[in-house]
Queue: 4 jobs
Job 1
Amino acid sequence: MPNITLFGIKNCDTMQKAFHWLDSKHIAYTFHDFKKGNLTQEDVSFWLKDLTIEEVINKKGTTWKKLSEDEKNAVSNENAAIELILKNPSLVKRPLVQMGKKHVVGFNPEQWDILFS
């Protein structure tokens, strides 16, 4: 199995469920905490080779709702979306799982049972 990296925020309820699930299955992973401020343009660009902007950005979250209409409209442009994510990493749906070149967004135990089998 390729190295697994979880991207997200440590105190997020969904992240806590994901950590618990992985730990209970004894699956090794690395955690990349957005609050540490070390998200790079290379990280986001790599995600967008496998995922769409719509899959990555959480439009139901408070961070999205606080954006101006101009910022919201700009996400249709990949470079503008990357810049916005780097300024506001909490826009990213959580958890974002990176396994080699494959990416999955969100925590779904049934999907993860298949993904990590």
Job 2
Amino acid sequence: MSGPASAPILILDDVDSTNAEGRRRAEAGQTGPLWIVARRQSAGRGRRGREWVSETGNLYATLLTTTPKGPAEAAQVTFVAALAVADLLCSFVPAPLVTIKWPNDVMIEADKVSGILVESGAHEAGGLWNNAQQ
């Protein structure tokens, strides 16, 4: 078996940003797949460089991977990830309470519980942040 489900997992106690760590590793030649998980982020960020408050106890993860897809197809990863997170949450809370604020936020009622940030360069890195405590 290969792919994200069987990728090695690197667990860090503290990192500036799991996406930034993924980018550094890609620039150093790693191609993945590799999950980068942090217990805490000191400089988490969202789309357009917005700050993402990264409290201890939530889930911060980035999947470093490569794809043969072109930029237009690779951009769809954000939508697919949002759908996957929403589908997973429906296993725990009533489905009508789970919504997606397109393109990258997953909500339970009015609360944002997940944000997805996909960045690309020589290698694609996609970050997933879940507010598990909210």
Job 3
Amino acid sequence: MKCANILTDLGHEVFLTYTASFSFDLTEVRAKRVYSPHLRPDEVPDADAVMCSTWYMARRVADLPASKGAKFAYLQDFENWSGTSEDILSCWRLPVHLVAVANYLRDAAAQHTSKRAAVLPYGIDFERFHPEGKTPPSPQRLVLGGLYNSMARKRFDDLVAVALGLREQGVPVELRLFGAEPGPVLPLPAVYLRQPKPEDLRAMMSACHVWLAMSEQEGLHIPPMEAMACGAVPVVTEIGGMRDYCLDGRTGFQVPVGGVAEAVAR
């Protein structure tokens, strides 16, 4: 939606086509909205280009007539939690151009298809995400931040284990979290923001000294990038697109998946 807004502001005519009920209340959408329940040709405006944002929609985009424009699929992760690996790769092999959010997806496309994907990572809105009232860490206070998501691949329990490990070493950790779900039950005190407003998320991230992401699978994973823009140091697993922006020992620190002890040591 951000890309649609930017292109609209640049003077392009942009249609945001959606196939299911969707809430646009969380952001201002300046592109034209088109409800297309089946993505049939008569429901989709003629255009110079058409892009889908999920692997399974590539099949419908590929079936559209040439009048709908050049066809693109935006690869945001290897989304094998919503389909089999072969189903995903078969959609990548369809007659659509591939655009990848991270280098590892470009490499996967090159390995499994005959295509070279262009890499187009997410951008950060620096008007929304910047340091605000930043204070340095001290022997009396270390603020640890992260995203709460109950999906198993996010390995949220590892994040909690890192916080507990630091507390066991006498580090005065304060844990701050945000997410879309109801707050988790935790074995330590924490501040949790559910679906925060942008200004509240900025304030929360600005309060964090370290941002933890312990997932076993991610696309680009934008929360660590936003936290970095707010002045937090990322400690992330060495997976997916996080390796593109969190350079170990330079812009943050990388740890192996499941590396709770390594994260505590960082």
Job 4
Amino acid sequence: GRIWTGLIKKHSGLINFVHGNPWIKPLLLGLPQAILPVSKDTGLMVFDASGREVLHYSMHDGSRIRDISVAVPHGDRVYLPSFKKDSRGLYSLKISEILEISIR
């Protein structure tokens, strides 16, 4: 067995800065979301059954699918739902193709 995880967004430098400086959170929360930098990158991470070893990690630029929150393996495919209004709704990839380019 493997553990499949969706990575909704890539952390930005701003997120890292805010985490280290929590006093700025109330100021940022008052700003319109449209002016805050938000990454379109989304990704997928696959762990071994123990959850300790990463078998695969990949980030995508968000051009075809955005905000991967869940990765559901079934048969020889993994299904990636996307809940954005302008998306197809459900994408699938062959597991063998994903794991072929695994990090070791």
